[in-house]
Design brief:
Layout: H1 4-15, H2 17-49, H3 56-65, H4 68-79, H5 85-90, H6 96-129, H7 133-158, E1 165-166, H8 168-175, H9 178-187, H10 194-203, E2 212-213, H11 214-224, H12 230-283
Antiparallel strand pairs: 1-2
Length: 284
Amino acid sequence: KVFNELRLILNSLVGSLRSLFWSLVMMFIIYFMFALLFVQVAVQHLQEHGWGPGTTEWESISQYFGGVAQAMMTLYQGSTGSDWTVAYYVIEDIGIGIQLSYTFFIAFVNISLMNIVTGLFVENAMKLAQPDLQTQALESMQADVATAETLQKLARKADSQSDGLMSHQEFVRFISDPYVLAELTVIGIPVKDAEFFFNILSDASPDTQGKVPVDLFVESCLRMRGHATGVDLHTLQYRLIMMDTKNREFMQSCMSAISSVSDSLQALQLTREVTDGLEKLQTI
């Protein structure tokens, strides 16, 4: 926890090495292409005018565009903070085409290329800044513990008899407190109907004679936070299927019992008819 920021910086640096490599490759290609263009134009300009070594024009142009490597360094300096107009004035007399090309290069690198590279590094840093699975689990556990402690403190205040149970009056008075409602809302449990909420909790503990245990209140509140998850929906679906299965089994057992009772009644009726017939025969 103390070195969390340092760990984040180190992870960002290590994770950005791949992006740094490909960014340098792309920058090298762009600088090389423009440097090659400027060197060819500069050499052609010197040859057309017959300016060779020793002339002022030759010395001026060769100082910045004497070779591809030197031209790449000139372009790099001009696009990373140095005075780019110095090289611009050197090639100013060559022609309008190379002037526009040089101006376009400076604008392209500073406005487009550098912003793209910066955005790429920022995106990678944001991804690496996300906590890992272990950190997320730890933060979730810490948040649950802090929420449980807050709910325990709130519920203990409502338990005036200190017996660990909240009666209906205590619960309604507790829930009606604006501070408690605000705390529950912040936690993620917006209680809109105190009566219904109490009935839900009291039905879950039938052995407490209509009272709500504090521990049950805390546990239920932790369970009710947030939206229903996929696990909650599947659990509800499973319970509904189990209830439907039990109801079907109960109906079948009831139908079997009714059928057996009906058969017994029919047998009893037949037995009575046979007995009555025998009595009549004996009388005759």
